[in-house]
Amino acid sequence: MAENYWKDKRVIVTGGAGFLGSFVVKKLIGRCTADILVPRIENYNLVKHEDINRLLEDATLSLDRRPAHLTPAGFRPSTSSPQPSDLVILHLAARVGGIGANREHPADFFYDNLMMGAELMHQAWQSEVGKFVALGTVCAYPKFTPVPFREDDLWSGYPEETNAPYGLAKKMLLVQAQAYRQQYGFNAIFLLPVNLYGPGDNFDPASSHVIPALIRKCFEAQERGEKELVVWGDGSPTREFLYVEDAAEGILLAAEKYNGADPVNLGSGTEISVKDLAGMISRLTGFTGKLVWDTTKPNGQPRRGLDVSRADKFFGFRACTSFEEGLRRTIDWYGEHRKLDGKD
Question: What is the pTM of this model?
Answer without folding.
Answer: 0.93
